[in-house]
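If you are new to this repository, start here. Below is one unmodified record pulled from the training split, so you can see the exact layout before writing a loader.
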Amino acid sequence: MTVEFIAFLMIGAAAGGFISGLAGFGTALFALGWWLQVMPPQQAVAVILVMSVVSSFQGVIHVRKSIEWSRLSPFLLPGLLGIPIGLQILERINADHLKLVVALFMLAYGGFFTLRKDLPNLTKPTPIIDKVIGFAGGILGAIAGLSGALPTMWLSMRDWAKETTRAVLQPYNISVLGVSAIALAFDGAYDRETLIIILVALPATMIAAQLGIVTFNRLSDNQFRRLLIAMLLLSGIILLAREAFA
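And here is the target side for that same chain:
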């Protein structure tokens, strides 16, 4: 590994880990831009899946007492069912075009609610919509690694405590991305070189995720909802810019 390679690897690992610890999603969006400068796409995706699971797992431990199966299962079970369908769709569509659509949607959503003084407050149960969102997130996770985009948009409308939101979002992302990583492992994505890269990047990701969690603890529930919306806007900008200049 060259000095340049290690520098880009560590910056991406720290950026992705911190964002995951802070907002509960976004590891890939904030790390891939750095890692694609020094790694081929397939290897970068294989590494990012492991880093996403590791950083999210720390967040899950932090909010483990807030995890309720009744809230999580409507998202998680359909999400897992969506993964094989997403893999089938991936063989038939242009993933870059789908990423562009998702980026524009995130921009519109994040921009609209960033400018609004009052945030939406959904209080009634919506089990059918929850299942649809979870299912679509599983498909997007398999196609483009964007499993957290739609659930984050939907959960940011909920009048929930920040720990409750993360107790749904992070276990969901861990499961979808973890299954995707296992699928890549069976395809031989984790060779010796990739495993060494993961071992080198792992400490930076874990430390940065802890710093993100510390920052998360200092936010109020409303500030956290605002953060999620702002992160969606920023993520949309990053994703759009990446697709435009790819």
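Two things worth knowing about this chain: Residues 22 and 212 are 4 Å apart (CA to CA). The two ends are 24 Å apart (CA to CA).
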